[in-house]
């Protein structure tokens, strides 16, 4: 738990928005992938008649509750964090009903893309099941190259010293709204939309044009 506690000790200085963004990018995808692989193993054990399957499901529930309790209350209002917790509950519910924890149509993607789940080997699951291993692996991925337009914009904002963060409890059509300096934006299918303050409508915008607006 050392890596996790190290981050939490700095949470007051980081503030809820950067912390939520860090969790969404680096921790929650791996957390969900581990949960998915663990539930898949428990489901396979139940189907094979393994009497320990029930105990494994109880361990999963305790594992989920333990991690949720460690999340600062301030970050649980952010859309990405809420969606991850909701996804975890949905996965557990599906597994308890004898269904795969992930829909078969769910895409796979490299680690670091929020909301998507890389495959895990049994050895990886065993290593990640402990909180210390999970925190270490998740937080060690914070320097991965950007995989989405949002991450590209985030990296550019950091390089230029621009204000960029998710707005707590603010979404549009289920998508998290972000603030880039004075501009409200959200992302849908890797396309950025900005809010036109004159007519109150959202319009697609390229990364170049978006940066030009604040230059």
Any descriptors?
9 helices, 215 residues, alpha+beta, 2 domains, five-stranded antiparallel sheet
Descriptive account of the structure:
The structure is a single chain. Helix 3 runs parallel beside helix 5, helix 3 crosses helix 6 and helix 3 crosses helix 7. This protein is an alpha+beta fold. The chain folds into two domains: 97 residues; 66 residues, no CATH class. It has nine helices and five strands; from the N terminus they run H-H-H-H-H-H-H-H-E-E-E-E-E-H. The chain has a five-stranded antiparallel sheet. A hairpin with a 2-residue loop joins strand 2 and strand 3. Helices cover 53% and strands 15% of the residues.
Structural class: alpha+beta
N-to-C CA distance:
42 Å
- Order of helical and strand elements: HHHHHHHHEEEEEH
- Count the domains: 2
Shape: elongated
**Strand order across the largest sheet:** 1-2-3-4-5
Q: How many β-strand stretches?
A: 5
* Share of residues in helices: 40-55%
Strand content: 5-15%
Our Rg estimate from Cα atoms comes to 19 Å
Mean pLDDT: 75
- Main sheet overview: 5 strands, antiparallel
User: What is the number of helices?
Assistant: 9
Given as residue ranges, the uncertain stretches (5+ residues, pLDDT < 50) are: 103-146
InterPro entries: TFP11/STIP/Ntr1 (IPR045211)
Organism: Protopolystoma xenopodis
Protein name: GCF C-terminal domain-containing protein
């Amino acid at each position: 738990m050392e890596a996790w506690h190290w981050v939490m000790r700095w949470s007051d200085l980081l503030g809820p928005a950067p912390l939520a963004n860090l969790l969404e990018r680096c921790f929650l995808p791996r957390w969900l992938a581990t949960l998915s692989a663990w539930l898949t193993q428990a489901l396979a054990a139940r189907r094979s008649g393994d009497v320990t399957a029930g105990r494994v499901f109880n361990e999963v529930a305790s594992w989920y509750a333990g991690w949720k309790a460690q999340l600062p209350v301030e970050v649980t209002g952010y859309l990405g964090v809420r969606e991850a917790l909701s996804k975890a509950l949905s996965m557990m519910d599906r597994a308890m009903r004898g269904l795969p924890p992930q829909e078969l149509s769910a895409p796979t993607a490299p680690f670091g893309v929020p909301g998507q789940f890389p495959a895990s080997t049994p050895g990886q699951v065993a290593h990640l099941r402990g909180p210390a291993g999970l925190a270490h692996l998740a937080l060690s991925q914070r320097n991965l190259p950007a995989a989405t337009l949002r991450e590209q914009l985030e990296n550019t904002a950091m390089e230029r010293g621009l204000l960029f963060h998710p707005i707590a409890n603010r979404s549009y059509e289920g998508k998290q709204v972000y603030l880039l300096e004075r501009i409200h934006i959200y992302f849908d299918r890797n396309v950025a939309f900005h809010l036109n303050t004159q007519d109150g409508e959202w319009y697609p915008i390229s990364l170049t044009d978006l940066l030009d607006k604040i230059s």
